[in-house]
Every structure is written in structure tokens, then in C-alpha cells.
Write a structure and sequence with these properties.
heterodimer, A: alpha/beta, 6-stranded mixed β-sheet, 3-stranded antiparallel β-sheet
Chain lengths: 257, 291
């Protein structure tokens, strides 16, 4: 499988007044090779920027990011990355399967495989019956599922997710988190999930990488003692673990202030 | 809309209510009462035209026939020009001039609009002439083209092209600027080819702008062509109108005007409407919400 290696990443943005704003201050960490690694940090700390750097949309000033894979010589082929955005970002004029095909074509997956993959991944997110439907006829939760299926259908080495549940209502988000967890476990998918929600990080993450507020530095990295399918939000021990994490995060936020 | 299978799947995933609401919104509302809403609507529209004709008839009784001919004679004249095939010949000429001029304007305005929308310097450079072109009345363009090209078909094509080019370019230019950057980012992340980016992401977003521009442009193009024909062509609907004017036959002018109007309406609402429906059937209809 594959994992993401981030080495002393440094990035600034130019502000409107001409001054430089340091966003990433020497961030280093590795994601897990299997399962979900959560990047947890307060809003605006730079975690989305880090994701953009990993996906190639932005560049670092110093340091580097690498997708390390057993099956591929690093540097020979660009890494196969899937991305799930905060908002669905679907092409509304294409059907559900049309949107997935758009990704398949872009990543140069051979046409012979399309039908099988469409079936598999649309089935996984529970939308196979809607393959010929247009996004604007679907609910918000369903559109986000299409986004998830699109990220998965290309069978990426790493799936990048940028707060994919933050725009959904609580119940839909909860259901989708459960489903994502189950799907990633089933596919043995490496994933990197960016979030500012402590409960989400604790529920979804096998490894939790905590970032300080801007400029982002690594505050702490811990492994989740609970296996993915045994995380019960009502379990006392789980709640305690969550509390501990929450306290650490609060301390971080207060430190910056 | 939503099929039975989909509804079953929705039930299972617990999403029925909101999706069913949305699918209902996408379907026209159930017809209630008698007569049904659709019939009422048609009746009102037909009634409106009938009223106009009746008013016309009343006026024709008050005025001499040389000033206001009565509707029935005029309709008879319409029947003649259609029946003899005369109308189709003249209309064909007018239509040809509109279509060629239009096609030429589109071929130039689409790339130009896209360039103006993407490259800052080109935008600044081309904006003044485009705005000037827009402000110039189509009739003046018609006069200028005839003076320059003489009474040739080219002047008709040129007059149409140059009149509608500014509004087409502006629509596409503004449309390009309003393209969703988030979708471009998405297409980058999935490594879409440049061709795929243009065809799958950019052009569909421009469609509604282009359609709006075509609608508006078409209306203007007809007027410009008719004026050009009036100036001294020997065929076309405009020419027939001038001929009617010269022999002072109000009946003839009205007959040609009416027939021309009907064809224009069929094209504008029939063809353009059809084009719009096919190109935007992925979008739920807003009409479903109207009372």
C-alpha cells in the first residue's frame, strides 16, 4: 500500500498588505499505511493548505511531500490520489456515473474496467440505483456520497478528504462517517482526513496528527487505541479518550492566544 | 425523475422524505380542479390573440380600408403568399442572411469572449471597441455596410455579424469570468486533460450565457436584415415590405409582417426553447414552484 510522508513542510502566503503570512512551519509526519489518519487542528491553521500541497494544487517553499508506495518506484509515475472536497464539487450537467467517469478518464483508467468499478463503488456508497440521475435532483448527503465514490473509484493509493462532512446536517454526517469508516476498513484504503472536529477525529482516525494554530506545527501524534469498527460514541472509555484529546486541543488553542 | 427502484433504495437509506420532496418539486404539480391549469393557460393565451384580432376588426370598421384593412382580407392575403410559395422564397432569403451573419459572429465571438475572460490584458484592450460596437444602433451598421459593400449579399451578412457580435462577445466574456474556480481545481486534482477541462467543465457553464445571447441577438438580427433589405435588395421580406409601402397597400405590408412574425416566433420559442430544454434538462425546472 502507500502512505504520505511530509518532511519539514514550509509554506507562506502573500497577504493583501504585502506581508508574508507563514502557514506551515516545518511540519513533519507520516500517515499510516492502512486506515485513516486524521489531521486535526483549529480552523485556519493550514491543514487544508497541507492537503492542497499533497494533492499538487499548491507548492511548498521548503521541505517536501512524498507519497511512498511499495508497488511503485517513487518518482516514476505521479501518485494516484483521490480527493473528497468539503462541498461535492460535482459537474451538475453530468449524471452520477458521468461524474465518476470524468475522474476515471482523467486518471487514465482503461475503459474496460469502468463498468465494474462504477458498480462496485456506487454500490458501496448506496447510490447504484441513481447512477443515471443528475446531481441537482439528489439531496446534499447523496451528492457528498457521489463525491466520496468519485474519490474511491480511481482506486487511489491515498484518499485525501478535506472536512467532507462539515457542510452536512448532523444526522447525515453521522451516517456518512460510519459508512466511510466501514468502506475504508473494507478496502484497506489509506486515507488522510482533515478536520477541526475533535469527535470526528477520534471517531474516524486510526492515527491522529494534531496541528497547532497558524503557523501550523505538529503538536502531538497519537494512535487511536480503539480499532475502527469498535468505536462507540456512547462507550465510557471512548468518551474519556475523546475528553483527553479535547483537553489537549484546548490547551493548544489557549497557548496561541 | 425518481424511479420505483430508486424510491425503494431511498426508503432503505432513510432519505425518502427530502428526496421525494425534491423529486416532486421537479415534477409539474398535480392538476387540480376543472378546467385544469394547463387548459386555463392555453385558453388565456388564445383568448388574448382573439381579442387583438377583434379589436383590429372593430378599428377596421371605423377607418377606411386603405388605412386599416379588415383582418379577414389580410388573412386571405397571408393565405395567398403562403399558398403560392412566394412567402417561402422571400423568407428563405431573409433567413439565410440572418443565419450566415449569425454563424460568422458566433465563430469570432466565442474564442474572443473566452480569451477576454481569461487574459487580463486582452480584456482591457478589447473592451472599448466591444462597448462602442454595442452602443451603435444596428440600423447605422446596416447603412454603413451597404455604403461599404454596396448592394451585395455581403453587406447583409456583415451588417448582421457586426451588430450582434458585441453582445455575443460580452455574454461569453462575462460567462467565462464567472466560471466556478472550485470546479477547475477539482478537474486539476483528477488530472483532467485540457480538452476535458474545456468540454466537460468550461463549456457547459457557458451554455446558458450563450443561449441568452443568441435569443437577444436573433431578435436584433431580424431587424437589421429587414432594414438592409429595405434599402434596395430585390428579394427578402424587407423588400416585400418596402414594395407594399411603395404601392401603398397596407394589406400587403400587414400580411407580410404577420407571416414573418409567426415564423420568427416559431423559431425563437420553438427552436431556441427546444435547444434550451435539451441543454438544461439536468437542472430541475423552476416552474414547478410557481403558483
Amino acid at each position: 500500500m502507500a502512505y504520505v510522508h511530509v518532511e519539514r513542510a514550509v509554506k507562506s502566503f502573500l497577504r493583501e498588505d504585502g506581508r508574508e503570512m507563514l502557514v506551515l512551519d516545518g511540519v513533519s509526519f507520516d500517515t499510516r499505511e492502512y486506515g485513516i489518519t486524521c489531521l486535526l487542528g483549529p480552523s485556519g491553521c493550514g491543514k487544508s493548505t497541507l492537503l492542497n500541497v499533497i494533492s499538487g494544487l499548491e507548492r511548498l517553499e521548503r521541505g517536501y511531500v512524498e507519497v511512498v508506495s511499495n508497488h511503485r518506484e517513487s518518482g516514476m509515475r505521479p501518485p494516484q490520489l483521490g480527493y473528497v472536497f468539503q462541498d461535492p464539487r460535482l459537474l451538475n450537467w453530468k449524471t452520477v456515473e458521468g461524474n465518476l467517469i470524468f475522474a476515471l478518464r482523467g486518471m487514465k483508467v482503461s475503459e474496460a474496467e469502468w463498468e465494474e468499478r462504477l458498480h462496485k463503488y456506487l454500490e458501496l456508497v448506496g447510490l447504484f440505483e441513481f447512477r443515471k440521475q443528475y446531481p441537482l435532483y439528489l439531496s446534499g448527503g447523496m451528492r457528498q456520497r457521489v463525491g466520496l465514490a468519485r474519490g474511491l473509484v480511481i482506486e487511489p493509493e491515498v484518499l485525501l478528504m478535506d472536512e467532507p462532512y462539515s457542510k452536512l446536517d448532523q444526522l447525515t454526517a453521522r451516517k456518512l462517517r460510519e459508512d466511510t469508516l466501514a468502506i475504508c476498513a473494507r478496502l484497506r484504503q489509506t486515507a488522510l482526513l482533515v478536520t477541526h472536529d475533535v469527535e470526528e477525529a477520534v471517531y474516524m482516525g486510526d492515527r491522529i496528527v494534531m496541528l497547532s494554530s497558524r503557523p501550523a506545527r505538529i503538536a502531538e501524534i497519537l494512535e487511536n487505541p480503539f480499532p475502527p469498527l469498535e468505536r462507540d460514541l456512547d462507550d465510557v472509555r471512548f468518551i474519556q479518550f475523546k475528553k483527553k484529546l479535547l483537553q489537549t486541543v484546548l490547551k493548544l488553542v489557549n497557548q496561541e492566544v | 425523475m425518481i424511479t420505483g427502484d430508486q424510491e425503494k433504495a431511498l426508503n432503505i437509506s432513510g432519505e425518502t422524505e427530502s428526496a421525494a420532496r425534491e423529486s416532486a418539486a421537479a415534477r409539474p404539480p398535480a392538476k387540480r380542479g376543472f378546467p385544469s391549469e394547463a387548459l386555463q393557460d392555453i385558453a388565456l393565451r388564445v383568448g388574448s390573440i382573439v381579442t387583438l384580432v377583434l379589436v383590429w376588426w372593430l378599428l377596421s370598421l371605423l377607418f377606411p380600408p386603405t388605412l386599416i384593412p379588415n383582418p379577414w382580407e389580410t388573412f386571405a392575403e397571408v393565405g395567398t403568399i403562403i399558398g403560392t410559395g412566394h412567402f417561402f422564397v422571400e423568407m428563405g432569403n431573409t433567413l439565410r442572411r440572418v443565419l450566415v451573419g449569425f454563424a460568422f459572429a458566433m465563430v469570432v465571438s466565442i474564442p474572443m469572449g473566452i480569451l477576454m475572460g481569461t487574459i487580463r490584458s486582452l480584456e482591457s484592450f478589447f473592451e472599448p471597441p466591444v462597448i462602442l460596437g454595442l452602443t451603435m444602433p444596428g440600423l447605422i451598421w446596416a447603412v454603413l455596410m451597404i455604403m461599404f459593400f454596396g448592394l451585395t449579399e455581403t453587406s447583409a451578412y456583415a451588417a448582421v455579424s457586426i451588430t450582434i457580435f458585441p453582445m455575443l462577445a460580452i455574454s461569453i466574456w462575462q460567462g467565462t469570468k464567472s466560471i466556478d474556480k472550485d470546479l477547475i481545481d477539482m478537474s486539476k486534482v483528477f488530472h483532467a486533460s485540457p480538452w476535458s477541462k474545456v468540454v466537460d467543465v468550461i463549456l457547459p457553464q457557458l451554455v446558458s450565457h450563450i443561449l441568452a445571447a443568441i435569443r437577444y441577438g436573433l431578435g436584433l438580427a431580424w431587424k437589421v436584415v429587414v432594414v438592409v433589405e429595405m434599402f434596395g435588395f430585390s428579394n427578402g421580406v424587407g423588400y416585400q415590405v418596402v414594395r407594399g409601402f411603395n404601392i401603398f397597400s397596407m394589406k400587403s405590408v400587414l400580411a407580410w409582417a404577420i407571416t414573418f412574425l409567426v415564423v420568427m416566433i416559431v423559431i425563437e420559442f420553438g427552436f431556441i426553447g427546444w435547444l434550451e430544454r435539451t441543454l438544461t434538462h439536468w437542472r430541475p425546472r423552476i416552474e414547478a414552484w410557481r403558483r
